[in-house]
Amino acid sequence: MLNERIKQLRTERNLTQVGLAKGLSVSKQAVSNWENDNIQPSIDMLVKIADYFSVSTDYLLGRDNRRYLEVTGLTESKISHLQQIIDDMLS
Questions:
Q1: Is the dihedral of CA 26, 32, 33, 36 positive or negative?
Q2: Which of 7, 47, 73, 81 has the fewest CB within 10 Å, making it most exposed?
Q3: Distance CA 62, CA 6 (A)
């Protein structure tokens, strides 16, 4: 599940393996190995990946399917506007 989630999050953001590798300060080979389920990232790297994509480690591990939006730095007005858009989409 972890390999699929990493690839899904990477492709959703139109990132190449090289782009993700640069963002995480690892080699392209490391990203390729994670996505091909050849090796697992360390616990520290798992946390770094979760932070990079603004998801929980439980999401990465397939234990939770909830996704969150990072709104730090947005005004209350902008957050409210985003919530209205989300509510409209869920209706």
A1: positive
A2: 73
A3: 11
- As a whole number of angstroms, the longest Cα–Cα distance in the chain is 45
CA-to-CA distance for 55 and 63, rounded, in angstroms? 12
Q: What are phi and psi of 62, to 5 degrees?
A: 80, 15
pLDDT in tens, 17-63: 999 999 999 999 999 999 999 999 999 999 999 999 989 999 999 99
| Integer CA distances (angstroms), 28 to 1, 18, 50, 53, in order | 20, 5, 18, 17
Helix and strand numbers (H, E) in the chain are: 6, 0
Task: Quote the pTM value.
Answer: 0.80
Q: Which helix (H) or strand (E) holds 20?
A: helix 17-24
